[in-house]
Each structure stands twice: as structure tokens, then as C-alpha cells.
Specification:
Strand content: 5-15%
Number of strands: 10
InterPro entries: DUF5682, LolB
Largest sheet: 4 strands, parallel
Strand order of the largest sheet: 1-6-2-5
Shape: elongated
Pfam families: DUF5682
Distance between the termini: 105 Å
Number of helices: 33
Length: 725
């Protein structure tokens, strides 16, 4: 006897009904839709250490990027079927097209319509239900017998497929393979066979309606590839439709609650809601839980439903916990309705050595793997945190961005800030990276070495060199340094040279923060000076005749290089850099933006005194096109008024120059200044105006104090401080 159970993937109602039906049928063999070459890893599903959500991962050995996932949650009917078979001692296996076939062919786009991809949801909507699970539960209650329910769905699918085009291509091959698997189970002596499949395929699995030789002809000559299959942890977030998963569900966290909670579903749900809100320091009393439960039950009764569904739960939560904000409901949606539970797989599950090495490192360094973002601040003076930092940098080199670096006061400190969030797709990236090495260190070294040999610019090389040092990859360091030296000796444009300076400066100056001083730091310093010299020589000519957008880009590179030179603290390098800026500011054909920027930097470094700056200011603003004058002021003052606020001497210099103009020059200059100052924030303009209130600012010395007037406030201040004598 062959019993076909059409189900909806990831449906708690389907799973519970299927579990009951299997207990009644007690089949000898359970066949489940899924890649039939994964039977070798099926026994792991019966282990208690296998905690869903998990996914079956299949990838091509020679091309790990060609991979597919088959996710399963605790409420997935397929997972329930395998767990039931393990408890009952029945044989169970997958029956769909092997992964070796599906991954060998060209990837097919998902062009199926809603009825094809999720027919039960479409039927539920046609019946007037917004929630498939509610429709399913009502159908179960109405029919009363699990077998009748599944037969009713099968009958509906036969009617739907009668008007649909005949299966072709990959779909026809899948259904032919499943029919052959059913025939093999019957031929093997199974008296009762249970077939668990997607509702759409159920009518096509009637082996009496199709000839075996026709199915064999469909399957003849299918391409195959050598593949590996294993289990990896998955998350509820990746099961949701919001993640882009075509067969996903809207509320995996809520479905998990429905499936695992046998009684008091509503009461326990709102208890979880209250616990979540309290953890976020939001008000959620026991009285509110009782009130929300009553409201949800009342809404369900008014709508003629036996139990509250997700709509009633959300409406009750918004009314009781939301008050005047939807923040609690959004929190409930993210943390409970969808959820981010991460599954676990047993230690014995086969995986690549690289993933095994990473798991050992995570355990040794006491790093928790979770899908929710976790902020972590490291102190590089401790061995454990230093090892954590090294691991994070190595994984980023491997393209596994489990940890994203955050700002923590700059690289010249002993702190690093990271944000950790594990994503299931990192499992595939580990498989891809395993081609470079069997351990995290070996793989990262190989990847860095290859990147150094293929780097196209100096910036890429210096950035890579910095990453290699932070990742403590001594094996890749000589290759990166040699590539950098060769590239520095070749032809490179000025922008490339300038952009390469900041990483080199950080490496030369802060390489010892991690306790790893060595030859590389000295080489980085020497290379820095070489590149700086070449950039300084070429900078004035590189600025000639460039467009406004190119001048703006070059100014950004000059700013980064200026900060790098000051960070190095090398007097010779600083002198050479200032000489280059002076040559840039001394040419008549330098773009006004770069000219003004160079003058300001030379003034900040005390290379130019106030009188010389005023002279150059007058020359630049005394004649020329208004657009050029505006660009010069933009370069000189920067994009923010903060410089004038925090540098009274510069403000005084600008004020002296402006007030020294005669009336015609003042009238011509004022609109240009107004145009520049209009780009500053309003509070900045106010602060500048207040500092200039009352006329000219005080230069140099502080105002002379009136001692007699100052002494008058002393008794009042003493009284405020509680001093009586």
C-alpha cells in the first residue's frame, strides 16, 4: 500500500498532522522529498545533538561555489517524518533527484507561479484565510481524519494540475526519479510505503499512471558531478520569506512556538512577549499578559475561530503593550515572530578540515557563534583578545566576514571593537576557502600570498600588507613586501602613491602595538619615505590642468598623506612633504582648491607665518573669476566651520585681511565669502559670529582683567560652595 502525504514545506500544521497520520499508518518505509544521494548523512537527524534549524548542504567538490541548501526546522514535515521513522524503527530515505545531478546541470531560474511554488497557501487564500496554518487546522478539524485531509489536498492538486501544462525539463526529471524510488521501495518488499512530498508533486507520484520505461527514458543521460553532502546550522531568519528564501514562511519563530507548545499556546506566547520586553527595559506586567490573552481570545471568538492566530496575537500585543508606539510590536516581530535561533549539528557530522579548525578556535577563544549581532571590544595587551583579533582578520582575508571591525579610538590604541554575527552562508565560503588550506592560518596565508602577487595598485598592496600584519601571517609577509618594493620601483601615478601612504604609516608606527616588532616595520618605514619622495616630486605637475572633480579627489589624497606624514613623526619626511606643498602652492597653474588647501596646511605647520598667509590670501582673492575665488576659499577653510571656531588665530588672520580691504574690494569679496560660509552649519556660523561680536577679535594676549570687579564675585562663589570662612 502506497500512501501519499502532500505537505507544505515548513508548516507546523502539516507536521503535526503528518506525525499523527504516520503513527496510524505505521509504514515500513518513509520516502521524503529531498536529494536521494544524501542517505549517508541521514542517521545524524536521529541524534539528540542535532538541533534544528539545520540545513543539508551539497556542493560540487571541484567548484564549492556551486552549492545548494535544503533547510529543515523543528516544524518541517520532512524533519518530523525522519524523526518519527527513527523512533518507530522504520526505514527512511530521500527520494528526489540526487544533488550530484541537480548541481551538475545549469542553474535554472525559479519561474514557477505562486500556485506551483506554494499551492496550499493559494488554496488557503482562495478559502478566505490569510494564514495557511489556520486554514489547515480548520480543515483538519472539519474532516476529522488525517488520511481524509491528505486525500482532499491530493484531490485538489489533481484538479489544479489537470489544467496546468505537463511537467517538463528538471521538474519532469524530479518526478520521474521520485516515481522510480517508490517502485524500488515496493520491489524491495515494503508492504506499507509513506510518501512525503510537496503538494504540487503529489498527483504525479501515482506510479500506476506512469510507465517505468518512460521514466527511465526521461532520466537517461542526466549529467552528474562529484558532490559532498553534510549538515550545517541554519537560522529561523533564513527560513523567513523576508530573507528571499522562495519556500520560506512569514513567521518561523511563531511556527516553532506552535509546533513545540502542546497546550496554553496563547498564554505561553504572551509570557515570552513579556520576558522579551522586560529584557529590553520596557513595561510588561503580569496583568498585561492576562489582559493580552483575554483580548486575543475575544478577537478569535468574534471572528468565529477556535484559537487566536498570529493576527489576533499581534493586535492584542499592540493594544496592550504598544501604547503610543509600535516599537514593542517591531521588537516582537524581529525576535519572536521571525526569530534568529541558530541550530546545532553534532561533532561527528562530516565537514572540511578548515571548518573543523575554525570550530576548535572558536571554542578555545571562547567565542559564541550566534546569528544576533554581538558587540565585542578587545584589549590587545591580553593574549586571548590578541588571538581573537588575529582570527577575525584572518577570516576577513578568507572572505568570511563573521566579525566586522568598528571604530574604537583609532589603530594606535590597544583596543579593537568588532561586531559579530554568524550567517549560514559562511559554511559555503569556508568550503570554498578550504581549497587554499586545511587550517585558518594556512588558508589565509595562501589567499594573502596570491593577492599580493596579483595586486594591481600600490594602494591594494599597502592595504593588504597592513591586513597581513594584523592577521599575523608571517608566511605571506615577505611576498607582500617584495611585491610592494617592486611596485614602488615601477611607474605609479601620484594619486596611487599618496593613497598608499596611510596604511604604511600605520604599519610602521603601530606595528608594535601587537607585540610583533620586526624587520617589516622598518621596511614599511623605508618604503613610506620612498613613496613620499616620489609623490612629493610629482604632486605639483599632477595638479596641472585637472578638472574640478579630479581636484577634489586629489585633495582627499593629499589630506590622507598629510595625516600619514604627521603620524610618522619623521622630521626629514615632514620637511620634504612641506617642500612639496610649498611647490604646489607656488605655481600659478595649480587649481584654486588645491592652492588654498596647500596654503592652509603650510600655515598650520608654521611653515608660513601670518603675514605671508595674508599676502597669499590677498593675491588669491584680489583678482580672478568668482568660481576660482570660491574654490580657493573652500580649500583654505575646508568643508566645515569647525576650523575657524577652534583656531582663533586663523579666524583673526582672515578677519584682519577682510577688515583691511578698501570699500570696493570689500564689496566685491563679500558675496564670495557669503557663498563659502553658507555651506557651514548654522550653529557653526553662529559660533563664528559670536567670537567676532563687538568688532575685531583679540589677537594673541588675553584681555586685561579688572581685579576689583573680579573680587566682587568671590564671596558669592564661596557661599555657593558652602565655604563659610
Amino acid at each position: 500500500m502506497i500512501s501519499i502525504f502532500p505537505i507544505r514545506h515548513h508548516g507546523p500544521g502539516s507536521a503535526r498532522s503528518l506525525e499523527h497520520a504516520l503513527s496510524q499508518l505505521n509504514p515500513d518505509v518513509v520516502l521524503v522529498e529531498g536529494p536521494s544521494d544524501a542517505d549517508s548523512v541521514l542517521p545524524f537527524l536521529a541524534l539528540e545533538d542535532m538541533k534544528p534549524p539545520v540545513a543539508l548542504l551539497g556542493y560540487v567538490n571541484d567548484d564549492p561555489a556551486r552549492a545548494s541548501f535544503w533547510p529543515f526546522a523543528a516544524f518541517s514535515p520532512e524533519f518530523v517524518a525522519f524523526r518519527w521513522a527513527a523512533r518507530a524503527g522504520a526505514a527512511a530515505r530521500f527520494m528526489d533527484l540526487p544533488a550530484s545531478v541537480s548541481l551538475a546541470g545549469e542553474r535554472e531560474g525559479d519561474e514557477a507561479d505562486d500556485l506551483h511554488s506554494d499551492p496550499l497557501r493559494v488554496l488557503a487564500e482562495a478559502a478566505g484565510y490569510a494564514d495557511f496554518e489556520r486554514w489547515w487546522e480548520t480543515l483538519v478539524e472539519a474532516r476529522g481524519d488525517d488520511f481524509d485531509v491528505f486525500e482532499a489536498v491530493n484531490e485538489a492538486m489533481r484538479a489544479v494540475r489537470a489544467d496546468a501544462p505537463a511537467a517538463s525539463g528538471r521538474e519532469a526529471a524530479r518526478e520521474a526519479w521520485m516515481r522510480q524510488a517508490i517502485r524500488a521501495a515496493v520491489k524491495g518488499g515494503a508492504g506499507r510505503v509513506a510518501v512525503v512530498c510537496g503538494a504540487w508533486h503529489a498527483p504525479a507520484l501515482d506510479v500506476q499512471a506512469f510507465k517505468a520505461k518512460d521514466d527511465a527514458a526521461i532520466l537517461k543521460g542526466l549529467p552528474k558531478a562529484k558532490v559532498t553532502l553534510t549538515w550545517v546550522p541554519w537560522t529561523h531568519g533564513r527560513l523567513s520569506t523576508g530573507s528571499g528564501y522562495g519556500a520560506g514562511v512569514r513567521s518561523p519563530g511563531y511556527y516553532h512556538h506552535l509546533f513545540t507548545t502542546r497546550r496554553d499556546v496563547t498564554e505561553r506566547w504572551f509570557a515570552r512577549v513579556a520576558r522579551l520586553l522586560r529584557e529590553q527595559r520596557l513595561e510588561a506586567s503580569s496583568a498585561s499578559v492576562i489582559e493580552a490573552t483575554r483580548l486575543a481570545n475575544t478577537l478569535a471568538a468574534l471572528r468565529g475561530r477556535a484559537l487566536p492566530g498570529l493576527d489576533e496575537l499581534n493586535e492584542a500585543a499592540l493594544s496592550v503593550f504598544g501604547w503610543d508606539s509600535d516599537l514593542p510590536l517591531r521588537l516582537i516581530e524581529r525576535q519572536l515572530v521571525v526569530g534568529e535561533a541558530l541550530g546545532e549539528v553534532p561533532d561527528g557530522v562530516p565537514t572540511v578540515p578548515l571548518a573543523q579548525d575554525l570550530a576548535k578556535l572558536q571554542k578555545r577563544l571562547r567565542l559564541k557563534v550566534q546569528p544576533e549581532q554581538m558587540e565585542l571590544t578587545l584589549d590587545l595587551r591580553t593574549d586571548n583578545d590578541l588571538a581573537r583579533s588575529v582570527l577575525f582578520h584572518r577570516l576577513n582575508l578568507l572572505g568570511v566576514p563573521w566579525a566586522a571591525e568598528r571604530y574604537a579610538g583609532g589603530r594606535g590604541t590597544f583596543k579593537e571593537a568588532w561586531a559579530l554575527a554568524w550567517k549560514p552562508e559562511f559554511s559555503v565560503r569556508l568550503v570554498e576557502a578550504s581549497r587554499s588550506g586545511q587550517t585558518v592560518q594556512d588558508a589565509a596565508t595562501a589567499v594573502a600570498t596570491d593577492a599580493a602577487r596579483n595586486a594591481g595598485t600600490l594602494t591594494e598592496l599597502t592595504t593588504l600588507l597592513e591586513a597581513v600584519r594584523y592577521a599575523d601571517l608571517e608566511g605571506a609577509l615577505p611576498v607582500a613586501l617584495a611585491a610592494l618594493d617592486a611596485r614602488a620601483a615601477g611607474n605609479a601615478d601620484v594619486s596611487d602613491l599618496l593613497e598608499a601612504l596611510p596604511p604604511l604609516a600605520r604599519l610602521a608606527r603601530y606595528g608594535d602595538v601587537r607585540g610583533r616588532e620586526g624587520e617589516s616595520n622598518a621596511l614599511a618605514g623605508a618604503t613610506f619615505r620612498t613613496l613620499l619622495t616620489r609623490a612629493g616630486v610629482g604632486l605639483p605637475l599632477a595638479a596641472v590642468g585637472i578638472a574640478d572633480d579630479a581636484a577634489e579627489l586629489l585633495r582627499g589624497h593629499v589630506s590622507g598623506a598629510d595625516a600619514a606624514v604627521r603620524l610618522m613623526g619623521d622630521p626629514d619626511a615632514l620637511t620634504g612633504w612641506h617642500a612639496a606643498l610649498d611647490r604646489l602652492a607656488g605655481r600659478d597653474d595649480t587649481p584654486p582648491l588645491l592652492h588654498g588647501d596647500a596654503v592652509r596646511r603650510l600655515r598650520d605647520a608654521s611653515v608660513l607665518d601670518g603675514a605671508e598667509v595674508q599676502r597669499r590670501l590677498g593675491l588669491a582673492l584680489g583678482a580672478g573669476a568668482p568660481t576660482g575665488i570660491t574654490a580657493w576659499l573652500d580649500g583654505f577653510l575646508g568643508d566645515s566651520g569647525a576650523l575657524l571656531i577652534h583656531d582663533p588665530a586663523l579666524l583673526a588672520l582672515l578677519d584682519d585681511w577682510l577688515t583691511g580691504l578698501d570699500a570696493p574690494a570689500f564689496q566685491g569679496t563679500l558675496p564670495l565669502l557669503r557663498r563659502v560660509f553658507s555651506r557651514f552649519e548654522k550653529p557653526e556660523r553662529r559660533a563664528i559670529g559670536e567670537s567676532l561680536r563687538g568688532g575685531r577679535t583679540v589677537r594673541g594676549a588675553a584681555r586685561e582683567l579688572n581685579g576689583e570687579r573680579a573680587l566682587r564675585v568671590v564671596p558669592v562663589v564661596l557661599r555657593l560652595l558652602g565655604v563659610t570662612a
